[in-house]
Amino acid sequence: MKRTIFLLLIMLFSGYLFAQNSTLKVGENAPEIALPKVDGTAFSLSSLKGRIVLIDFWATWCAPCVKEQPELKALYEKYANSVKNGKFEILGVSLDKSKENWQKTIERFKIDWLQVSDLKFWKSPVAKDYGIEGLPFNVLIDEQGKIIAINLHGKELEELVHKYLNVEK
Amino acid sequence: MRYFIFLFVAMLTFSNWASAQQKQEPWAKSQLMETATLASRITNNKTKDLLILSVGPDAIIKGSVDIGPANNQENIKKLNSYLKNVSKDKKIVIYCGCCPFDKCPNIRPAFNTLKEMGFKNAKLLNLPKNIKADWLDKDYPTND
């Protein structure tokens, strides 16, 4: 009997492990993102090594994501010096389908951080690589590309960025 | 005893309130189409009498027509002109799937337009979370 319970427990636990494997974990390396920028040139996340990077997954069709863009802009401006010194960056990864909408929204909000997209909507491989179930979604990574935080927004996000940028100075 | 009466009244009030909230949606529960139903009709080629319209970011469902996000007035016009010569008895199902129903800016204006135009067999595809979780992850048929 004890053995059966033990076996059942192991089965349950392995199921849990398996489920966890499909999603991101803090402390793990962030999956590579290799996508084109708005002008069509290639870009890869690994080229940002050495910086704290906020990867913002968004789309112009996602109302809460669009609403968050001014907050990200404020964050980007607040840490403009860190950006200049190569310590901080924001990478916007759009799950848009329409290049026109994507471009227009970038212009409308005067988004001046990095923006990439393969314009494949939910079929973009990054959605799978990062296990994204819905937008908005973001990941904060450290200088080595390790995940520091998953899906933090607003004040919580800002405080963490602040903490990491200050510690590293 | 008083406590029970209070609880009873509170429950009644709340349930009335909750159903009142539901009534505010332009569709009735019976006007929701389940994804499994639509997916099996597509797979079995039984969609000839059915119009599948995307009123969101992308017409990803196989055989659907891309109207565009219905929170944009231009796309409501597009929906109007697309349906101008369609019989009011035609079975129509619309979907968006950008986000959960309560956050979606597209399904309400689109469904209201169908109602205003007098379509009697209009339905809304039941995508409570989004098109990713409720359609793509289930490997239902898509436009490629």
Summarize the structure.
Chain A is an alpha/beta fold and 169 residues long. Chain A has helices at 2-21, 63-78, 80-84, 99-108, 125-129, 154-167, and strands at 34-36, 42-44, 52-58, 88-94, 114-116, 137-141, 147-150. Mean pLDDT of chain A is 90; it is low at 15-21.
Which structural class is indicated by helix and strand composition of chain A? alpha/beta
Radius of gyration of chain B in whole Å, from Cα?
A: 18 Å
Number of strands of chain B: 5
Global Rg of chain A: 18 Å
**Name given to the CATH architecture of chain B:** 3-Layer(aba) Sandwich
Helix content of chain B: 25-40%
Total count of domains of chain B: 1
The coarse overall form of chain B would be globular
Written account of the structure:
The complex is a heterodimer of chains A (169) and B (144). Chain A has helices at 2-21, 63-78, 80-84, 99-108, 125-129, 154-167; strands at 34-36, 42-44, 52-58, 88-94, 114-116, 137-141, 147-150. By secondary structure, chain A is α/β, with parallel strands linked by helices. Chain A is globular, with a radius of gyration of 18 Å. Chain A is built from six helices and seven strands; from the N terminus they run αβββααβαβαββα. In chain A, the strands form two sheets. A five-stranded mixed beta sheet of chain A has the order 5-4-3-6-7. Chain A is 41% helix and 19% strand. The longest helix of chain A is centred in the first third of the chain and has 20 residues, at 2-21. By secondary structure, chain B is an alpha/beta fold. Chain B has one domain: Rhodanese-like domain (Oxidized Rhodanese, domain 1), CATH 3.40.250. Helix content of chain B is 39%, strand content 13%. Chain B is built from five helices and five strands; from the N terminus they run H-E-H-E-E-H-E-H-E-H. Chain B has a five-stranded parallel beta sheet with strand order 1-5-4-2-3. In chain B, helix 4 (107-116) links the parallel strand 4 and strand 5 (121-125). Chain B starts with a helix and ends in a 10-residue tail after the last helix. The model of chain B has no long low-confidence stretch (mean pLDDT 91). The interface between A and B is medium-sized, with 16 and 16 residues.
